[in-house]
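Fold this complex.
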Amino acid sequence: MSLSENTTVDVKNLVNEVLEAYPEKSRKRRAKHLNVLEAEAKDCGVKSNVKSIPGVMTIRGCAYAGSKGVVWGPIKDMIHISHGPVGCGYYSWSGRRNYYIGDTGVDSWGTMHFTSDFQEKDIVFGGDKKLHKVIEEINELFPLVNGISIQSECPIGLIGDDIEAVARAKSAEIGKPVIPVRCEGFRGVSQSLGHHIANDAIRDWVFEKTEPKADFVSTPYDVTIIGDYNIGGDAWSSRILLEEIGLRVIAQWSGDGTMAELENTPKAKVNLIHCYRSMNYIARHMEEKYNIPWMEYNFFGPSQIAESLRKIAALFDDKIKENAEKVIARYQPMVDAVIAKYKPRLDGKKVMIYVGGLRPRHVVDAYHDLGMEIIGTGYEFAHNDDYQRTPHYVKEGTLIYDDVTAFELEKFVEAMRPDLVASGIKEKYVFQKMGLPFRQMHSWDYSGPYHGYDGFAIFARDMDLAINNPVWGVMKAPF
Amino acid sequence: MTDKLSQSADKVLDHYTLFRQPEYAAMFEKKKTEFEYGHSDEEVARVSEWTKSEDYKAKNFAREAVVINPTKACQPIGAMFAAQGFEGTLPFVHGSQGCVAYYRTHLTRHFKEPNSAVSSSMTEDAAVFGGLNNMIDGLANAYALYKPKMIAVMTTCMAEVIGDDLQGFIANAKNKESVPADFPVPFAHTPAFVGSHIVGYDNMIKGILSNFWGNSENFDTPKTEQINLIPGFDGFAVGNNRELKRIAGEFGLKLQILSDVSDNFDTPMDGEYRMYDGGTTIEETKEALHAKATISMQEYNTTQTLQFCKEKGQDVAKFNYPMGVTATDELLLKLAELSGKPVPASLKLERGRLVDAIADSHTHLHGKRFAVYGDPDFCLGMTKFLLELGAEPVHILSTSGSKKWEKQVQKVLDGSPFGASGAAHGGKDLWHLRSLIFTDKVDYIIGNSYGKYLERDTKVPLIRLTYPIFDRHHHHRYPTWGYQGALNVLVRILDRIFEDIDANTNIVGQTDYSFDLIR
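Structure:
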């Protein structure tokens, strides 16, 4: 039985009703972030990438989360120092399942938490001296570390520390890249500026200060995967397809990535971008500086995968184009079987999505491939160019919410009663308590990968197990 | 390329099977050898062995600056936890907004429950001009949208570094009618660069109590027969607070828990989302001033609060996460002493059953060596219980542990012959513990989910008995306090021991012996 009782909600009216609860000043501001998608729209008609309103329970994080948590953290052969008080690194410690292979603590450090653990005296007298010491100790205890990044927490920028000077001095001393990142949490309005700052740090402190490996031999088929954090192994189930069509993936940014892969990236023939929001900056830079073209692709769901494989192959010779067709054909029977198995169980089910900066549009066709329908979608930290890319995926009448507040999302979901809510851990239990199936779409709910053909089978299975679990049927007591 | 795919619709392979398939193994090998420019396998193996050595341990313990895998979080999450134990209370964290996303996520991942809190979302301009406007608008929005009965304000380090004054800001916001003048907005300054989450807990409880009790000393406050109890930051609060209330019921005494998250962090799934549930009411909080005594279950969570209670003329008593037979005895005797009521027969019966269970299983516990880590109070309680079981606590470690705490642990160790090989390590972290375990091996580790990396490295089995537990479900719903709680802890330890023996004796044709049906 479908849980959607309310199929004819007047969505425009609903938005106005929900806004009623706000004090006037905030109501006016929030109204600009909510819209119902119109036919033939060029964008979603919402404001984005502006400050969250105080006190409303935004779901957003901060610049540190965008840099340490997203971009830098997954580089496995580096140590990333959470520079400042203990909390930021503690809460983000191993929280994102950026899979990697390595000897943790010896040649890889992805699931560890390094902090300068600021005390009051560090705030008062500055933390640069301590940072020197932190880097020395790291280099002594972890001699195989291939680079160190300094991830600034809020106090660093407020107390006037000169982490760039420390980085230069220590890098010369230990003979390894030491990269200062000014990703203090109060900068910008969300994780997004942290992505940008992290990209710029790679530009200024990796590309400008290091060279590709001397023995690196290029081929005409060298590409990179940019903006795949290997959540649950996503970059791996993507890489395998690119290799199958005859390309050579010379770098993964940044899931399961290494310092050498960053350094060698300027040797690529094409940069392939999955998460546009978090890494378009470095792709644009490489286009300008090294003349490397870049291309966005989408490996969620068979329709988008096939389209992307063809688009990627079109940049190369006939051999690659033929290979792409072969690969698509090779996986087609498995895709057909997955759809034959799961589509009858999911057909017509309605979904509301609220995630970060890419997936609110990128996963849409994967749902469509299973016969599901998107009735609402929105981003935590998208910019206008993301909202311009969104109407391509969703249809007229879809509710769009930017930087949605917990209050709004709860009211929208309550009124629209989707069959599935696809959002994050902070939202998960709210909607499950309401009796709604839920999947975490940042972490794949500890499942995954969801990218690539192998990932699509898991995605389909997961949506089915969420929606069709018997637990929803026993929610109401018979007394 | 073969035509046979590993993935299929019939049997969908998850990440833990998919990536072991030959095509992925080959891909990983190729990535490693062609693109990663890592160190040679021999070099990695050499350094790996070195990290297990005495030489490495000496260098590791000589660290003065870097902290690696600590057992502590920062103040505001503790303050948030404390506030969420009061009825209809919305935590309002003044400062950068990312912090709140982190606290909510952390607590949600442990309790598997929604966690509500708001931020004043301060950004660069607020860093320059201060966050007063964020407070004014933020309180108005939070009050209008989430209809709390109380808003408890705490701070991130950003607000602390720029020196925002909560008392003044809140008064200002009330003048601007962000919330009604009589609406309770207690607050606590909770700088992340001082102490840890347990200090934040202390600050917030004191902040809430002083909001309703007044700040001034009053040793002559009129008293009732009521006893207050402050649980402290506790990952097992759901089970433990309910157990405490049950014990109070058996006793027939009026026990008032100050900050009770047990219902808020364990709401039913019945179609209705409850943003707030249960908790200490405002009336109860006011009334608690007149209690004759306040008991703290975790000394290091309540240093200032207990002092404050003393200044209100209350008797105070403090425990260190009491677990096991004698620690529970002490708690019950204290309740009996304070209330003048005898320990009820029903609890004596429970005690006998617990002791019976320990006697039944003591052969498997006697002489087993343990590493224990976590918050200072938890470590003390766990150490004491292990000694009682005839087990040997060897490495006891807490990043929040002070010199005073180390002495306290030593005293507990000195009280039993089973404590002879034990030592306390205050201010140390889990990377220190790794060295300790490699150089002075133990049989089991007691800690939280972060310990799974230690378990992987050292092959010493981990028992998850303290916050946070992310990778096992629902244990927090069962108490660890009281005789009943001690029984749960005993069973958790025993299960791990038996699983470990089975896992090490299950190779057919090699270790057929010892794979026993009866243990």
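Residues 399 and 427 of chain B are 4 Å apart (CA to CA).
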